[in-house]
Amino acid sequence: MYDFADVPALASALDDAGYLTDEALATALFLAIRMTQPILLEGEPGVGKTEAAKALSRVLDTPLIRLQCYEGLAAADALYEWNYPRQLLAIRLAESRGAALAETDLFTDDYLLRKPLLAAIDHPGPQPAVLLIDEVDRADDEFEAFLLELLAEATVTIPELGTRRAVVPPIAVLTSNRARELHDALKRRCLYHWIAHPGADRVAAIIRLRVPGVADWLAERVAAAVARLRDLRLYKQPGVAEAINWAGALHVLGVTALDEPAARRTLAAVLKYEEDRAVAETAGLAEVVGDAG
Asked: What is the 3-state secondary structure (H, E, C) of 197-208?
């Protein structure tokens, strides 16, 4: 269902799709749908920004088109390219038949390879695609400026084919880990929501949803332990994704108690830097998992 009646209806659908949200985020996503306005989701890594876009595509029953940003990303890398091998094959076939082949015959939709941005613009509907522009803060200023224009107009110009305008403009979800500050112009174009680390109760609920068969006690203990880890001076604080991963590892191993030995065996599932492991060890793993006597 696309036309959700209100925010609670969307929040309920997201819950059913495996993404537990709060009223503020559900409201922001609801407005992005209804206003057909891009939304910028910022927050620390692992808090569920990318998962929000994925869940949105599931509840709307529409394709998720993802553009992963990186340093040096150019407009051409995100828009389209021509299928040169196929064009060359067409030229050779025409030559073998003694047929004339005009340049316009080679630059048609048949030879166009759509990359994420053009694929989202060309999506025929009837539902809008969800365009996930992931980690936009990794791209440079030039790409950000290009993106601003594309999002504002929902159009793109292909020199050989002319201007393409979206029949059904995509729902654009931009995510940022705040590796650098984005320009005000882009932020003004977007709705905005900061996704903070959820509390332990919500993390436990998310674990129960995302790790089938996990025991309630284990979900609660992992959520509490991850909250204690975030209180330490870590290089990379664990988020919801790491909590899910840790609970999954403990569940697969069939642990019956989250104690110091179990934590030490599985710490790599939640902490991904040796320096952070050392900090946790120094703080005392028994303290971290709440097993100190």
From this structure: CCCHHHHHHHHH
Neighbours of 167 (CB within 10 A): 13
Residue pLDDT, tens place only, 26-62: 999 999 999 989 999 999 888 999 999 999 999 999 9
Omega into 128 within 30° of 0, i.e. cis? no
For residue 13, the tally of other CB atoms under 10 A from its CB is: 18
- Determine the Cα–Cα distance for residues 118 and 134; give it in Å rounded to an integer: 16
Name the residue among 4, 116, 16 with its Cα closest to residue 68: 116
Distance, CA of 233 to CA of 276 (rounded, Å) = 8
CA–CA distance from 138 to each of 77, 183, 191 (Å)? 14, 13, 20
Query: What does the alpha-carbon distance between residue 139 and residue 141 come to, in Å, rounded to a whole number?
Result: 7
Confidence of residue 217 (pLDDT cuts 50, 70, 90): very high
- Are 52 and 25 in contact by the 8 Å Cβ rule? The answer is yes
Residue 166 tokens, joined: 């979206």
User: What whole-number distance in Å separates Cα of residue 132 and Cα of residue 66?
Assistant: 5
Residue listed under structure tokens 């209100």: 6
Contact 69, 138 (CB under 8 A): yes
Share the mean pLDDT of the chain.
Answer: 91
The answer to whether 7 touches 26, Cβ cutoff 8 Å, is yes
Concatenated DSSP letters for 163-229? EEE-SS--EEEEEE--SSPPPHHHHHHSEEEE-PPPPHHHHHHHHHHHSTT--HHHHHHHHHHHHHH
Rounded distance between C-alpha atoms, residue 250 and residue 97, angstroms: 66
* 89-98 confidence digits (pLDDT tens): 988 888 888 8
Q: What is the pTM of this model?
A: 0.86
Q: How far is it, in rounded angstroms, from Cα 179 to Cα 114?
A: 28
